Amino acid sequence: MNNETLTDFAYYTVTDWKNETVLSSYCLPICPLTFKPKIPSVLNNQKIVWNFGDNTQSTELTATKTYEYPGKYTVNLIIYDCANQARLASYSKEIAIYDFTTNTIQLSTASTNTFQVSAGELSQPILVTSFFSRYQDPTDIFYSISGSQTPNYFSLSANKFNHFIPSHCLFEKTYNTKLSGYELVEVDKVALTTNSLFARISGSSITYCREQDNDNVFCGTSGSCIIYYKDCYPSDLVTIKFFQDKNNVYYETVSGFSNVNYLNPLYYTLSAKVLRNTFASRFSVTSNGLDNEGNTINSFDIDTNKFVGGKIAFVAKIKSSNDYSVKTFPQIALSSIDVKLCGTDYTNTFVSLVSSSTVPIVSLNYATSSYGGGYLRGYCQYSRDAVGLTNAYINVSGSCTDNYGQTYQLSGRSSVFNIWPVTKYSIYKQNEDFGMAEVYKSLRFQEILLDKNILFDDFLSTIVGTESGAFTDLGKTCYEKIVNFIQNNSDVDTAELPQLESMLEMIQARSANYSNTSTIPNLVRRAMSLLSIQKNRLFGYKNQFSQNLDNRGVIGGIYGTNLGSQLNTLQYQVTAGVPIVAYEKFSDVYTLINTLQPLSGGVTTQQYALSTYTADWGWPLVLPRQFSVQDFDKYYTFYSYTSAINATITGGVIDFDNTQTTLSYQTPLTALNESKGVAECIIDNALYTGLELLT
């Protein structure tokens, strides 16, 4: 036999899942192709090899093949004789394989792909939809913008005042659960919410279906997101191009997939015209100029708790009638703007306390030219007296002219807040009424020291503090730490935070939720330690003692408050249920008498004479066996009973008897813990004081 390759031809047919002759299909598991040869009789019973063009082979006479990726594949049929020589090696067919779900980007607006938007305001919603093939992981959609008169927000240098600078960007609306409203968030790419796609054979076609449908296969992914465009300056033509990350998308030039020859549009373009905004409507007055766009979210109002002597920072910026920031204004002339701090003082009189002539107002426009216009930044300071101001607000009004020469008369006011005295809710603990200077002064027995008032009153008192001084005084702090040692260190209910952490570590119960409180400023840590105590332990309770019967003691009604007037033993008519007091002269003991007891000892009426007393009444009286009523006064004096409780506060951490404690015992738990309530006010005061924000 010679080595000449024999050339007997054997053709083959290609059929799909419908048993139809085809030369194309989808790269889905439910779309196999069947290859069947037509072999001449002279070639029967020989070896067959199928080369499918994707580096896979088959030796089956009738082969079935499912392609994993799309593309155009050349399929060769090779037949070998018994000598393993190829009898046919040249016959081939080109098979086209397509994605059932193709990588694409689709965009839709309320109108067309060319839209208009007012400067500084949001466009109509833009729905971005992208589809990803079965083998493709979903990716974010990126964008580029050209033609804008402002920089992209993400190209700005990091600065806390970037929200004042005119810029352009794409936005998403996200729901903020804490604020119970939607807020706008700048995005540098479009993050899609994705869903899996499934397909199945339905009759003579392949259709999308639900995941729960029978005989389905995974065929790709879809993703979507609603975005908005905003630009602060007008522009005739802005082009927004959306595209996928081509490094993560299969397409024909990707290494290893050079045969993947199919259409895959990876970008989409929108055009926009940004119109001049002529709807400047009001001033928005907030703490930092952040107040959302398109709708108001009160996340940065002036804080409710402000204090006398503290600087109240504010930002006033121009807003449109649709509640968007308008930045097409030059630097605002301070001479044309009036700022007033208004409210109600302690006389319940509405007052306008300060204006722009007396309140320092700082415009960032004058300080840094790179910032845009349309806003003012400054502060008000209330220091008239120590009483404070309620229902206060900052009012801003005046005229402003935009870059196009149009003048507007604008006004606006801040949220309502209170300016509290620094001592609004002062808390002094038990044993913080100590004055070390007074103690030193009481020990000056030497005559030479008696007239050294400067030494004791001015020098030592400055160092160690006086009884009327602050709880931070050295002497008062040392004394309190010593006297309240157990309460501060060992009582789990009242221990200070560092000591509580130590106790938790001792029983191996400390978790990551407990941070190292040693780094917290002292004033703040003190406030947190006190406010973490349960209210009944923090406030204590009113003494319910109601048998304060001995009237000997300090003048002023402190003693004997439950002892009434003396009774005539021979004439007094006892009413059952109305207690009386018996004073035993020999033992000097007062006893509260239960006047209901005689009803079980022979007395048959609700009123009975005291002079009819017998031992059967069961009263705890000590009398001789031979006793006459006429001798009552020899042994006892009887008094009426005055119902009253002691009502002094005891058992608490707070010393309500200290005149420097201004927190009321009547403060309810709801007022203590509510948002911007008493507890927050105390912590705010500690923060402002520690940061030296109070003059």
In brief, what are we looking at here?
The protein is mainly β and 695 residues long. Helices cover 12% and strands 33% of the residues.
Keywords for this structure?
about 700 residues; Immunoglobulin-like; mainly beta; disordered N terminus; about 10% helix; 5 domains; single chain; 11 helices; seven-stranded antiparallel sheet
Structural notes for this entry:
This protein has 695 residues and is mostly beta strands. It has five domains: 11-98, Immunoglobulin-like (Sandwich); 104-275, no CATH class; 285-420, Sandwich (Immunoglobulin-like); 436-541 and 654-690, no CATH class; 563-641, no CATH class. Helix content is 12%, strand content 33%. The chain has eleven helices and 38 strands. The strands form nine sheets. Strands 10, 12, 14, 15, 16, 17 and 18 form a seven-stranded antiparallel β-sheet that branches. Helix 2 packs antiparallel against helix 3 and helix 7 (522-531) runs antiparallel to helix 11 (678-690). The radius of gyration is 45 Å and the shape is elongated. The model is unreliable at 1-5, 250-264 and 348-370 (pLDDT under 50).
Mean pLDDT: 84
Proportion of β residues?
25-35%
The geometry reads as: elongated
Number of strands: 38
Radius of gyration: 45 Å
Distance between the termini: 113 Å
Stretches where pLDDT is under 50 for at least 5 consecutive residues are 1-5, 250-264, 348-370
| Count of discrete domains | 5
Helicity, in percent? Answer: 10-25%
* SSE-based structural type: mainly beta
